[in-house]
Amino acid sequence: MARLADYFVLVAFGPHPRGSGEGQGQILQRFPEKDWEDNPFPQGIELFCQPSGWQLCPERSPPTFFVAVLTDINSERHYCACLTFWEPVEPTQEAACAEHTVEREEESEDGGLVQLSPAVPAQAGQLFAPKTLVLVSRLDHAEVFRNSLGLIYTIHVEGLNVCLENVVGNLLTCTVPLAGGSQRTISLGAGDRQVIQTPLADSLPISRCSVALLFRQLGITNVLSLFCAALTEHKVLFLSRSYQRLADACRGLLALLFPLRYSFTYVPILPAQLLEVLSTPTPFIIGVNAAFQAETQELLDVVIADLDGGTVTVPECVHIPPLPEPLQSQTHSVLSMVLDPELELADLAFPPPTASTSSLKMQDKELRAVFLRLFAQLLQGYRWCLHIVRIHPEPVIRFHKAAFLGQRGLVEDDFLMKVLEGMAFAGFVSERGVPYRPTDLFDELVAHEVARMRADESHPQRVLRHVQELAEQLYKNENPYPAVAMHKVQRPGEASHLRRAPRPFPRLDEGTVQWIVDQAAAKMQGAPPAVKAERRTNVPLGPPMTAILERCSGLHANSARRLEVVRNCISYVFEGKMLEAKKLLPAVLRALKGRAARRCLAQELHLHVQQNRAVLDHQQFDFVVRMMNCCLQDCTSLDEHGIAAALLPLVTAFCRKLSPGVTQFAYSCVQEHVVWSTPQFWEAMFYGDVQTHIRALYLEPAEDRAPSQVGEAPSQEDTRSALDVASEQQRLWPTLSREKQQELEQKEESTVFSQAIHYASRMSYLLLPLDSSKSRLLRERPGLGDLESASNSLVTNSMAGSVAESYDTESGFEDAETCDVAGAVVRFINRFVDKVCTESGVTSDHLKGLHVMVPDIVQMHIETLEAVHRESKRLPPIQKPKLLQPRLLPGEECVLDGLRVYLLPDGREEGAGGSAGGPALLPAEGAVFLTTYRVIFTGMPTDPLVGEQVVVRSFPVAALTKEKRISVQAPVDQLLQDGLQLRSCTFQLLKMAFDEEVGSESAELFRKQLHKLRYPPDIRGTFAFTLGSAHTPGRPPRSAKDKGPSLRTLSRNLVKNAKKTIGRQHVTRKKYSPPGWEHRAQPPAEDQDDEISVSEELEPSTLTPASALKPSDRMTMSSLVERACCRDYQRLGLGTLSSSLSRAKSEPFRISPVNRMYAICRSYPGLLIVPQSVQDNALQRVSRCYRQNRFPVVCWRSGRSKAVLLRSGGLHGKGVVGLFKAQNAPSPGQSQADSSSLEQEKYLQAVVSSMPRYADASGRNTLSGFSSAHMGSHVPSPRARVTTLSNPMAASASRRTAPRGKWGSVRASGRSSGLGTDVGSRLAGRDALGPPQANGAPPEPGFLRPQRAALYIIGDKAQLKGVRPDPLQQWELVPIEVFEVRQVKASFKKLLKACVPGCPATEPSPASFLRSLEDSEWLIQIHKLLQVSVLVVELLDSGSSVLVSLEDGWDITTQVVSLVQLLSDPFYRTLEGFRLLVEKEWLSFGHRFSHRGAHTLAGQSSGFTPVFLQFLDCVHQVHLQFPMEFEFSQFYLKFLGYHHTSRRFRTFLLDSDYERIELGLLYEEKGERRGQLACRSVWEYVDRLSKKTPVFFNYMYAPEDTEVLRPYSNVSNLKVWDFYTEETLAEGPPYDWELAQGPPEPPEEERPDGGAPQSRRRVVWPCYDSRPRAQPDAISRLLEELQRLETELGRSPERWKDTWDRVKAAQRLEGRPDGRATPSSLLVSSVPHHRRSLGVYLQEGPVGSTLSLSLDSDQSSGSTASGSRQAARRSTSTLYSQFQTAESENRSYEGTLYKKGAFMKPWKARWFVLDKTKHQLRYYDHRVDTECKGVIDLAEVEAVVPGTPAMGAPKTVDEKAFFDVKTTRRVYYFCAQDVPSAQQWVDRIQSCLSDA
């Protein structure tokens, strides 16, 4: 029983002591006057009676009632029921008030009521003062309080004849039962009667109608957000003008929070004087009168609910997490169904008669029921996560928050996370966690109704029914006896407050009241104490947890298969089947991303520990640790899924023996995870283990007690949970003796203590690093660095990281010693021990002991670890695969042995099994080797599913263009590793991550060695020299004094002579003074004297003519003559080297030895072609006008038009340009520069006059040859061809891509006004352009004017600005814009990145490659080169000579000149001719290979510039367009492209012949060459290889004798060279032939039983296998076959070339049945002559060409087709006809058949071929047709039956000649020419079917 009311108080208005104008409350009387012992009088009641302040008011107000709530220091709530009424102010009060308002300063000291004389007259306006009756109670019976206070007020107002003292006394002595659903009738002795009903369960809150009112006022969404705000500990403030509403709203909100109790500040009605409470930092629920709304405006973090306005305002800075979906939406919809049941019926056409809506009280319970269900769903299964830590004397219970979140699948849910961390939930656990207590509605709901709620989710009506059932129970709890609630209480009459009260409220007699109270107390004393009868029971556990929402269920649908994989892998590991395990490992690591697989792993490993299989060998240990690490790396710091918890016992169990006495446990290898440094994890683990041991403590005796009954009992006991055990123990506790109780307490305490010791050592295992000398622990462990806050707050990683860093620096652990690591661990463990031991009641002595023990445990463990660390360092890394040694070339030596690395995938998708599919060859695990020649990676893919494939990627050291350090994730353990990215100009990229065993020193050494090899200080240090040469690395190179009897001495003499003559001018013809080697870039000084006599010391050899040379010099001359260039000059008819006397004057050009000492120009060859008329001594002066002294020399002459091609460096300012610019005549006093300009003009004049057509300068140039050669009738766009050479404006109509025609685009638009007519109008009169003819042929050829210039000088536009035309029109300048070398370099860098990107593109697509390709502008440069070259070809072909004079004359000049010769002269398109072209134009004329290739240290800064590669790319483009014009294959070009940078051969080293002679390279002595020596020259190598294999040969070679090629040059016609993009990972680049061949593969065709050959299929991976090797083209395959067969027959196989020549000869004879065809046509064609320009493209590869003959018909492009030859040709595809013999076995039977077409189609005669080998029936249009029109697969044929003639069949054919072939898809109708052939066909097809 409890008192209904504790105190009755009368509070009245009194003036404010400090006279503030407002009054203050004064307690007039309180009863009882003594405080109750169990319940002291609450302070501050007078504030709460008038929350808005005590004020007088001018009129009477009706009485008000509200209940305020005060909370005392023990969180007990006191309900203060306040009934306020107004009485007229007594004059004394009034005056006092007035005085106080007027004269504030004269305040009396005593602060009491100031008595004034009553004679002061009353004021006209009567004022009324409030007076309040207050009941203070701990019970919440608001209605009873209202009635009781109302009764007292009524007695007073109505003047009833009842003693007020008795009523108050009765009220104070009235007792009511606490709970249990009893009812009690009370009477206060005034003829009244009230019935008090107590709720059935006092744990359920009483809400009356408050919840329903709250929803009415605010609406669903607002209430939900208030609910979430209160649960997640935000501040909530209610505003209303009604105090009762405020109190109800707060009560309603609290009722919604059930079963959680709100434990923060709760003030439903806050007095105005206490408003500053609102700025408190703690959460609260407070109600404030709306009058003070303004004061609440500046509150920034308070959620304000305005009850009157129905709004909820959430400030910006406050984030209220919503309920987790789907609960949020479900709750919302159920609430709307409860509040607005008519919503469902609103749309019905025939709504039912309106059902009666439930009463407000009932609706209130229904709304509460919705929230009760919500909590049951949220907290379902919470009891499974309770850890019972102590049972006696008091239960200590902890909640495993992480496990709960993990199992509910709400780890990321903000709402639940905050709720579980909140105080309310902590209270919930301590109150409801107890296993033995009274249960209520919520317990039953959570335990028994979860399944029902799940099932009802999708049925709103069933949900509503459930809600109504719960609401019934809640209602019944509040109103156990609904019928009996009858009150009889007197009330005052209407408007009684307006009547003048007879007197003020009387002063009650304290004695009387006190006496009544004492009497009642005496009675109570005699009565037995009322014990609250509690029915305590075991709280049911309820079903285990399920996730709130089955997230990503589809993802793990196949989890059973994954678990199977995990189990298999583990069993393989423990059975020692390591290869099998290795294959499964990647799949297992992928599967371990899923929760189920991780649990499965922990269970499986646990089983092996139980079977005593925890001691592993090294490989098993490694596998187990890797799987554990993979499990743990996805664990968060909370370990929601208990994975770390499950692994914790395992990591201290699995171990391996390192050496006798030293064992390494798995924990030393899994420390890198954040979970180990999270205090919450350790606490949860600790409590879990303690619970297990406590449970065991109480289960053991039961088993000991009954040994006899070994039946079911123990097993039943074993299944009981710890909570059940605890419940049982709590029930028994009162029955135990005190000794027994103490014994149990002691046992429990020591259990906890022993666990604490155990955990101290466990934590030291996982926190102390193996190498404790490193202080990494402090930096990397979030929890450890942060000493205070980690213990009870959740430290997020980012925050902890920053805390840890600051801790690290502040405490001065810069170089932390062991003790510091130990200190941090000790502190961490001590904090943990303190927390768990105080919570679980460990005695202080034990706790002190623990603090002493922890440092010792840590220290011991550190000592153990030192031994383990030492031994583990000695371990051989056995798990790594064996290093695969690369194959080396003869003479190639390893500089650095393999460093273990992972080769990572770069941006190319192919190798990594990207979107293109294919195996994931990368990442691969292996080693990188550095040899004198290459950087080589060899290894195996890390993905075992790819199989045992060897991956090789290599490139020559010399090709390295960039290396950079990178930091990358190693593919296996995902840790960050140092790496290196090497990029080469052979389009290879090595992106490597060093293995952890490779120290940073080794990696650095690798970089240094690589650098040293890449940039040797001297060219002699390169591989081409060190390989098998006299300069072995051991012996220093010869000094200059060494007089070895070799040609080197000769070359040195030569150089010495040249050096001695430097700086002198010459008197005689043979005297000359070259500019110095070091001065070659500047012109000679202007004031140098012209006539200087030669000093005496000059050696005679420089002065004498060739006939009188010294023997050594004669040798030089003969060697010079021997050079290939001279043979070429003779072939071209450019003169022979003979003495000047016998030289035939008729020859226009001669070979001059003027530069044989390399004195005029160092970078030119020794012999040069100059005009016959120019003397040698004039050349010296001419050379000064040109850069680098590279004066114009002839390099080629057209055999037909006799025009010559000249090349030179660009002009200096005082060259021809100066001459053209000078308007006035030269003055007599010429400077030297002018004289040399005159020489130069004479020289050009000599060139012009030495051309036979211009010798008489009569200008006969009709260009008739031009038109006949190039204006064939089949040119795709004839006008384009002509206008290209004529009118740039007319061209734009027919040109798509270059609107200004060829000239227009080459020369841009920067012509000076001085140049009246441009070259185009010179070549063809602008105004004389005739109309084109109707058939598309060009206009008549006569339109060309006879004013073609004799010589065109193609120069850089920048140099030729402002040039005026030559008056005689003998030469003309053509300024063009060319790109500089630096642009080539920049473009190449971008091309490299486009073709071999360093990292995968963000969105890989073909477009991104094309975009980066376009950005590189590489193809634009190729386009320009081809364009200029075609221009020059046109000019030469039309009879004008051309001088190419660009830059220094050794880069772009060389490219253009070489391309022109290649296009104009078929000889250069042979293997021999191309070699000659490169030797002549590139090597002899001094292209700076070493400088451009950055071959030595000196060139490092300038970097690699691919000028030669660009030229090869141009040749490749021409080759693609004219595949039949080149004797060499595409592979030959790639081979040169690779080796011109590789430095394997000496051919492409050094910058000029002069330098090669200086090193003795140019003329190696005859005796020095031995057969077995490695080839030093690339040409020699090509020759040797060509004899063995046709790899460099193009089978389609069928040249036209006089063909001049004019390729399309538009970018749209250019293809990206596959040299840039292809790679072969099986063997590395295929250009070192010895390495690329690999071990011979077994012949495919032989069967062991000697039966018929059977082909074995193999998969060819495009980026792994060399496709041309795996699938050689038809001809290569046949040649190989021939060789194999000849070898088998014992004959020595003949050379492939001889075989090929014989086949060709036979084909020629075959191809001439009527004797008319030309002998040169191997490939004769019936297609007119598309093949020249629209080339037949070949798929290229290292082993010849694969014939996939497709005509590329890009006719829309704007460039020109080749000149036509009218000879008719048969199709290229008849190339196959010579192999009829080989093909015939595939054509088992063939002939003509009629076949009926599809429905309504006619019969057609077709040529059918039955192919037994391919098991198919093919048909063609006619016999010679090569393109198959259809195939019938014989595998699908079901039957062959005689047919009947159908409509439209051939009339003449017999009926029996018809037959049908039925397949699974359709029926084919056939008809043969006669019956026998039909029978023959049927038989053949049948036999094929039966064979199969």
Present the secondary structure layout.
Blueprint: E1 2-3, E2 7-15, E3 23-31, H1 45-49, E4 64-71, E5 77-88, H2 91-102, E6 128-137, H3 142-158, H4 164-173, E7 175-176, E8 183-186, E9 194-197, H5 210-218, H6 220-231, E10 235-240, H7 243-257, E11 265-267, E12 284-289, E13 302-306, E14 311-313, H8 327-339, H9 360-378, E15 386-390, E16 396-399, H10 401-408, H11 414-421, H12 423-432, E17 436-437, H13 441-448, H14 450-456, H15 460-478, H16 510-526, E18 537-538, H17 559-575, H18 578-591, H19 595-610, E19 615-616, H20 618-633, H21 643-651, E20 655-659, E21 662-665, H22 679-705, H23 713-719, H24 722-732, H25 738-767, H26 776-780, H27 782-785, H28 797-810, H29 818-839, H30 844-874, E22 894-903, E23 924-931, E24 934-941, E25 951-956, E26 960-969, E27 976-984, E28 988-994, H31 1000-1014, H32 1023-1026, H33 1047-1060, H34 1111-1122, H35 1124-1131, E29 1149-1152, E30 1168-1171, H36 1176-1183, E31 1193-1197, E32 1204-1208, H37 1216-1221, H38 1232-1249, H39 1264-1270, H40 1278-1285, H41 1288-1294, H42 1301-1307, H43 1319-1323, E33 1351-1356, E34 1371-1376, H44 1381-1395, H45 1406-1416, H46 1418-1437, ...
Parallel strand pairs: 10-12, 10-13, 11-12, 19-20, 32-35, 33-34, 33-35
Antiparallel strand pairs: 1-7, 2-3, 2-6, 4-5, 5-6, 8-9, 13-14, 15-16, 17-18, 20-21, 22-23, 22-28, 23-24, 24-25, 26-27, 27-28, 29-30, 31-32, 36-37, 38-39, 38-44, 39-40, 40-41, 42-43, 43-44
